Write the structure tokens for this entry.
Amino acid sequence: MAIAQAAFIVVTKTKYHTAVATQTHTSTQFLTQWSTSLQSYDGPTTTTTSTILTTVTLDQDDSSPTTSSFQELALSHHNAVRALHVDTETLLWSETVALSAQSYADRYDCSGSLTHSHGQYGENLALGYNTTAAVQAWYNEVSLYDWSNPVFSERTGHFTQIVWLNTTEVGCGYKDCGSYYGQYTVCQYNAPGNYAGLFEKNVMPLIS
């Protein structure tokens, strides 16, 4: 069975956050440890670590998608989950963003570690999921989002980037990492989301 991982990059106006999730397989559950670094432009870097237990259903098939089917699946599933939220418009596929994502995916060493590109776009990473399952795993963090306190949380950064209102374009790339790790997926977003102070305006409630 493939090991499933996910990671996200978070951009703020005044501070830069990164968070990487690593998961260790324990039967049907995954122990997820988040190591979060907070870099202030006028202060030192501080690091905090927390551990949560989550249950993940893997949906990793044995075949690699074609380029056209990968694009269609990635875009359609992004838009399917965005459609669940009030006034959240569909994303357009950007070949420019997709080329950036694919270029980064092509350089991945299939080591099992997830590291962000730190480029100009927002970014979600996944390892061990097929295309739709990767997007769904990112979106599933919606169940952890605190609607009464709409701020960044390391537990929900993938979700908030996917539904971010000001994001209008997405482009994704992938790499086949074999039978153990499965598919490595990179999705990048323009304009990037997860800006501090803008969550209430950009993460819209679910349609009731």
Residues 10-62 have pLDDT under 50 and may be disordered.
